[in-house]
Design a protein that fits this description.
By secondary structure, the protein is α/β, with parallel strands linked by helices. It contains 16 helices and 17 strands. The structure holds iron/sulfur cluster. Iron/sulfur cluster binds near residues 12, 15, 21, 23 and 60.
Length: about 375
């Protein structure tokens, strides 16, 4: 089983109002340079080598890296790991942070998949979310990526934003589909405590997104994207045939992924998950002092994770294969729960597979709670 490598680049131009990721506001080039050196050192000191077929630069805004910094991180990866030919190398970007020149340079360094946050095509909404770009920047980014010969381009949209109507959402979907990305990630807005957006909603400055409306938006999105040839392969992810994210699929199939950088999470492919120090400066200091950046390590219950991660995928869980692997008959073990979930229209069991229904995708947390 090939592994994936994840690199966390925590810098952003500013923090969006709904974001709770490990992000630092970009201050100056020297801080980024120090961080890149720490990242390269962490990779160089990684104790084992593996065959790798996906590399993913996530963040944050990895497109704030200069091509030279990207190269400085890629070099030790190629030295330490056995990187398969035709590996998927993804870079997250933000609109208005890239130029044709940098995109071409990233491409020459091996980046072959681009993923960025569009979120909405309404400039007023983008402003309310604290995004630093406009809808025109999103269109321009796609245009620049095509000019730089990127053939695997995807972006994210968020549904259920405060004040967003079904008509607004429809327009967003139409605008998105017009750009013909190979991949789309469509999320329902999640209000995370501790973010500025959560505070604005609590104080009444922003209305709470309506749950029924979000459900209608979800239905509309499924209809529209399938009509345009996209296949939903995971709760929030849609792709044209053969453009599913190989890297993200590793998380849902419990394949090994080794994470580097602050807050990066890793899974060893057995039953151990571990994560790095969240704060970028503390992370860099730990590495610089020759210490490990790992601050948390846990042994996971692989049998239950395989169920709820498998259920995130449209193909669901193959019951026979699951029993052969874990020695557990899921139908017998969860008989009462499954009865209830089936009656609620959240799961279905067909052709030997346990799957979420459309309604189940929308209320997946109710299903996952059974397996946690
Ligand atoms: S660009 Fe992405 S990672 Fe950066 S602050 Fe906004 S949501 Fe968070």
């Amino acid at each position: 089983m090939s592994s994936g490598v994840y690199l966390h680049i925590p810098f952003c131009r500013s923090r969006c109002s709904y974001c709770d990721f490990a992000v630092d506001v970009y201050k100056n080039a020297a801080i980024v340079e120090d961080y890149v050196s720490a990242l390269a050192a962490e990779i160089e000191n990684f104790p084992t080598s593996h065959v790798v077929d996906t590399i993913y630069f996530g963040g944050g805004t990895p497109s704030l890296l200069t091509p030279a910094q990207l190269e400085k991180i890629l070099k030790p990866i190629y030295k330490k790991f056995s990187v398969a030919e035709n590996s998927e190398i993804t870079m997250e970007m933000n609109p208005a942070t890239v130029t044709l020149e940098t995109l071409k340079a990233y491409k020459n360094l091996g980046v072959n998949r681009a993923s960025f946050g569009a979120q909405t095509f309404d400039d007023a909404e983008l402003k309310r979310l604290g995004r630093r770009h406009t809808a025109a920047d999103v269109r321009e980014t796609v245009e620049l990526l095509r000019q730089a010969d990127f053939v695997d381009v995807g972006f994210d949209l968020i549904a259920g934003l405060p004040r967003q109507t079904l008509k607004d959402w429809e327009r967003n979907l139409d605008e998105a589909l017009k750009l013909k990305p190979e991949h789309l990630s469509l999320y329902l807005l999640e209000i995370v405590e501790g973010t500025p957006l959560a505070a604005q909603i609590r104080s009444g400055r922003q209305p709470l997104p309506d749950e029924d409306l979000a459900a209608e938006m979800y239905e509309m999105m499924l209809e529209k994207v399938s009509a345009d040839g996209y296949r939903q392969y995971e709760i929030s992810n849609y792709a044209l045939p053969n453009y599913e994210s190989k890297h993200n699929s590793k998380y849902w199939t419990l394949s090994p992924v080794f994470g580097f950088g602050c807050s990066a999470h890793s899974f060893d492919g057995g039953n151990v998950r571990y994560s790095n120090e969240r704060d970028a400066a503390r992370y860099a200091a730990l590495i610089e002092a020759g210490n490990s950046a790992i601050v948390d390590r846990e042994t996971i219950d692989v049998a239950s994770e395989a169920v709820f991660l498998g259920l995130r995928l449209a193909k669901g869980v193959d019951l026979e294969q699951y029993e052969a692997h874990f020695g557990i008959n899921l139908i017998e073990k969860y008989a009462a729960d499954f009865e209830h979930l089936k009656d609620s229209g959240l799961i279905e069991i067909a052709a030997g597979r346990l799957k979420l229904t459309r309604r189940g995708f929308l209320f997946s947390n109710e299903v996952f709670a059974v397996f946690v």
